[in-house]
Write a structure and sequence with these properties.
38% strand
C-alpha cells in the first residue's frame, strides 16, 4: 500500500467538528476544500469522502463524480473542476490517495 498526503491531527480535529447531517456542493461560494480522499488500485480511484471549510466551519462536501482514473486523476480532476466554471480553492493540495 502507498499513501499520498496521509491524515494529520489537524484533519482529525476538523473532522470531529463536522455536522454530518449537512453537505454542501463543491462549487459553494466561499468553500475551501480541505481533504479529498481517494482510495483505489492501479485502474480507478474511488472517492471515499470530501471535506471543506465554509465560513469558518468544517463541512462535508459533495463532488459530482464517484471515481477517477488512477493514471490521469489530476487531469480528470482538473476537467471536472473546469466544467464548473469556478476556481475551487484548495482542491489539488487537499487530495489524499491510498492505493
Amino acid at each position: 500500500m502507498t499513501e499520498l498526503n496521509p491524515i494529520t491531527k489537524a484533519d482529525l480535529n476538523r473532522r470531529e467538528q463536522i455536522d454530518h447531517s449537512l453537505c454542501v456542493d463543491w462549487t459553494e461560494e466561499g468553500l475551501t476544500i480541505a481533504r479529498l480522499r481517494l482510495i483505489g488500485d492501479s485502474h480507478w480511484l474511488d472517492v471515499s469522502y470530501c471535506e471543506g471549510v465554509l465560513n469558518g466551519k468544517p463541512v462535508r462536501v459533495a463532488v459530482p463524480f464517484s471515481s477517477l482514473p488512477t493514471r490521469s486523476w489530476k487531469t480528470s480532476l482538473f476537467k471536472e473542476a473546469k466544467s464548473t466554471g469556478k476556481f475551487i480553492d484548495g482542491l489539488f493540495n487537499a487530495v489524499s490517495i491510498l492505493k
